[in-house]
TrEMBL record:
Matching PANTHER family: CHITINASE (PTHR11177), CHITINASE 4-RELATED (PTHR11177:SF360)
SMART domains: Glyco_18
Organism phylogeny: Eukaryota, Metazoa, Ecdysozoa, Arthropoda, Hexapoda
Biological process per Gene Ontology, one example term: chitin catabolic process
Matches recorded under Pfam families: Glyco_hydro_18
GH18 domain boundaries: 15-370
Keywords, ordered alphabetically: Disulfide bond
InterPro entries assigned to the protein according to its UniProt record, in alphabetical order: Chitinase_II/V-like_cat (IPR011583), Chitinase_insertion_sf (IPR029070), GH (IPR017853), Glyco_hydro18_cat (IPR001223), Glycosyl_Hydrlase_18 (IPR050314)
CC terms in the record's Gene Ontology section: extracellular region
Organism: Diploptera punctata
Protein name: GH18 domain-containing protein
GO molecular function: chitin binding; chitinase activity
Length: 372
């Protein structure tokens, strides 16, 4: 069913706080179970429902039981957009993600009819379910199964989407890589012409695959793997600072120490840290999983800025409240559009360790959206 909307094109009047929500967290249990009603709309200007995907070149639900009402499904698409309307944030649909790969998007964007069909399907999808726009999370053009032509076709796809969206006032955001070799994938200077937000996936610079401990998402570093380097690279290549969103993670990257007595930065690593109870991914712990476990020895530094912790042979690098407030101040200093947090369900959203949403609250304090 199609719905009509008044024009509500995004006009930046405050720093954005874009919150990603992994809709699969509705299948979790105990303190990690996250439903639509767990979203705190006062802490997010936009919330991205992840993920929809591609089938035969058009947008589709990747989890019909969770997303749709048909066949006795949960109907979370409409629950989400209805909740957004009464809780003061813009509901966006995330399309893509790492598991979707790049090949399908490369094929769809490779010819004009494919781009048109996709854009038309997106508009129909947004109208049917009541979303206010999308975050296009194609990971990544020219990589992960993509083609060399993706760099040009990506711009053509954004142009097509922008033209289709203009009649409805839909928000068009894109999530983009933070690698120093981003010029292989993106015509940076032209992206800003067609989108409202460019969300930098400026985290996970270091993981256990480095085989030594390091700060996962440093604000500054002596090499090209830092938030500051990414921001400077994008702006130097022509991206408008006022459309750039700094991405931060509400989870930590974990390592298995080779020697539990050697637990500082640069310590030898034998593999990924132990998987968390709820996220169940080696090398990663949500902040909720981390804070609700005990006996971590925490190391925090203000200069340079980082936090890590260790317990036996387990080691984690994460952004705590102080780091996130400092990153928010960086956003203000650089005149960026705001911050994206990935993701809501990884924060301590229920206040199991202390107050609810400590990381997201720190971001809002740092941006001046709420008082310190």
């Amino acid at each position: 069913m199609w719905r009509l909307f008044v024009n509500r094109r995004h006009v930046a009047s405050e720093n954005a706080v874009i919150c990603y929500w992994g809709s699969w967290s509705t299948y979790r249990w105990s303190i990690a179970l996250f439903e639509v009603s767990n979203i705190d709309g006062s802490l997010c200007t936009h919330v991205v429902y992840t993920y929809a995907g591609l089938q035969n070149g058009v947008v589709t639900s990747l989890d019909p039981y969770n997303d749709l009402e048909e066949s006795y499904g949960k109907g979370n698409y409409k629950k989400f957009t209805s909740y957004a309307e009464s809780n003061g944030f813009k509901p966006l649909l995330g399309i893509g993600g790492w598991n979707e790969g790049s090949a399908k998007y490369s094929e769809m964007a490779s010819y004009a009819a494919g781009r048109e069909d996709f854009a038309d399907s997106v508009v129909a999808f947004l109208q049917e379910y009541g979303f206010d726009g999308i975050s296009l999370d194609w990971m990544y053009p020219t990589q992960n199964g993509g083609a060399q032509e993706d760099k040009d076709n990506y711009i053509l796809l954004l142009q097509t989407l922008q033209e289709k969206f203009s009649d409805y006032g839909y928000t068009l955001a894109v999530a983009v890589g933070a690698s120093p070799v981003l010029t292989k994938s993106y015509d940076v200077a032209n992206i800003g012409e067609y989108v409202d937000y460019i969300t930098l996936l400026s985290y996970d610079y270091h993981t256990y695959t480095d085989m030594k401990t390091d700060v996962a998402s440093p604000l500054y570093s002596n090499d090209s793997y830092s938030v500051d380097f990414t921001v400077e690279q994008w702006t130097n290549l022509g991206a408008p600072a006022e459309k750039l969103i700094m991405g931060v993670a509400s989870y930590g990257r974990t390592d298995h120490l080779s020697n539990s007595n050697n637990n500082g930065l640069g310590a030898s690593v034998s593999g990924a840290g132990t998987a968390g109870q709820f996220t169940q991914e080696p090398g990663l712990l949500s902040y909720l999983e981390y804070c609700s476990s005990s006996n971590w020895e925490v190391v925090h530094s203000d200069d340079p800025l980082y936090t890590y912790a260790y317990k036996g042979n387990q080691w984690i690098s994460y952004d705590d409240e102080a780091v996130l407030e400092a990153k928010a101040q960086y956003v203000l200093d650089k005149g960026l559009a705001g911050i994206m947090m990935y993701s809501l369900e990884s924060d301590d959203f229920g206040g199991n360790c202390d107050t609810a949403y400590p990381l997201l609250t720190a971001i809002n304090k740092g941006l001046g959206r709420i008082s310190k």
